[in-house]
Design a protein that fits this description.
Number of helices: 0
Mean pLDDT: 96
Number of strands: 29
Strand order of the largest sheet: 3-2-1-29
Shape: globular
Radius of gyration: 18 Å
Structural class: mainly beta
Largest sheet: 4 strands, antiparallel
Low-confidence stretches: none
CATH superfamily: YVTN repeat-like/Quinoprotein amine dehydrogenase
CATH class: Mainly Beta
Length: about 325
């Protein structure tokens, strides 16, 4: 039986949708912002489940009533295309936001005031016009930013200053980062051509050759399964956005992988996961071309929800 929860789906051109019945039905939840905005980032407050942050092309928005109403967080982020949001687990008043073109913004007081750390990220990329900060992640002592297409950046002072790292990565096209171990030394980075492993806190990396054990090498979303050591999920597909995708699962921190049980191939690359410590077994996943899946056994098997969307870029549950 599912615990009571809200599922949030952020789309391109259709705003944000909310389900209160485990994904059986959805309703738009865009009050306070442009109903057809492009939602590329969602973050749930770790201690206040009704508080979420959302990033669109109009800036940063916040709700304190579970998406009943949104208000824009007025700042220098207004009008910027937001791709990633992180609330530091140890201090959720510290907010980090990544944009396209790739820049980082930081607030230490819950969004009242903002600064822009001095970090020299590449801004332009011929293939995608502008680079973008696709992922922000934190381990117990360090904060990380992954850039498409400009590699990895690390901060050891809660996002105030940053340094480029990542020697040995298979690609500088970074999509997601996770920490399967408790000390932050073991890291996984997904890229456009492989999954990469670091065992020294991100200093050096080794491509895992994931295409030798799974159908493709294009890796996108990742998530650590809460509540158990070593559980990691990987979303992948045949290309971006692709015509087929799947969820892969590891139970040993990313050393070995196998496809999860799904009701057939997804219609495109698996782009997002949504996990929450309130129920480590309940996980949602979405393909970029609009399909939503649910697992109630920590990602071992999946069922597809009936509702489909046009394009999904963000996913969360609380």
């Amino acid at each position: 039986m599912l615990i009571p929860h809200h599922l949030y789906v952020g789309t391109i051109g259709e705003g944000i949708w909310r389900s209160s019945d485990g994904g059986q039905t959805f309703a738009r939840a865009s009050d306070g912002m442009f109903v057809e905005c492009h939602v590329r980032a969602l973050a749930v407050h770790p201690h206040q489940p009704q508080t979420l942050y959302l990033g669109s092309e109009q800036g940063l928005f916040r709700t304190t009533d579970g998406a009943g109403h949104w208000e824009r967080v007025e700042s220098s982020l207004n009008g910027r295309q937001i791709w990633s949001i992180l609330l530091l687990p140890a201090d959720p008043d510290v907010l980090l936001v990544g944009t396209c073109p790739a820049r980082l913004f930081r607030s230490a007081d819950g969004g009242r005031t903002w600064s822009e750390p001095a970090v020299a990220m590449v801004q332009d990329c011929p293939r995608i016009i502008h680079t973008r900060v696709t992922t922000l992640a934190a381990d117990p002592a360090t904060v990380w930013a992954g850039v498409e297409i400009d590699g990895l950046y690390r901060s050891r002072d809660a996002g105030q200053s940053w340094q480029p790292v990542g020697r040995g990565l298979s690609s500088r096209d970074i999509h997601a980062l996770v920490f399967p171990g408790p000390d932050g030394k073991r890291m996984l980075a997904s890229t456009n051509n492989d999954l990469n492993l670091s065992t020294d806190g991100g200093e050096t990396w080794q491509p895992l050759g994931i295409g030798r054990v799974l159908p493709w090498s294009y890796c996108r979303a990742m998530a650590v399964v809460a509540g158990g050591p070593g559980g990691v999920l990987l979303g992948m597909g045949d290309s971006p956005p692709g015509n087929a995708g799947l969820v892969a699962r590891s139970t040993d921190g990313g050393s070995h992988w196998e496809p999860a049980r799904m009701p057939g191939r997804a219609n495109s690359t698996m782009w997002n996961f949504a996990v929450h410590p309130a129920d480590p077994n309940l996980i949602y996943a979405a393909s970029v071309s609009g399909q939503v899946y649910r697992s109630t056994d920590a990602g071992a098997s999946w069922e597809k929800l009936a509702r489909e969307f046009g394009e999904i870029r963000a996913l969360a549950w609380a």
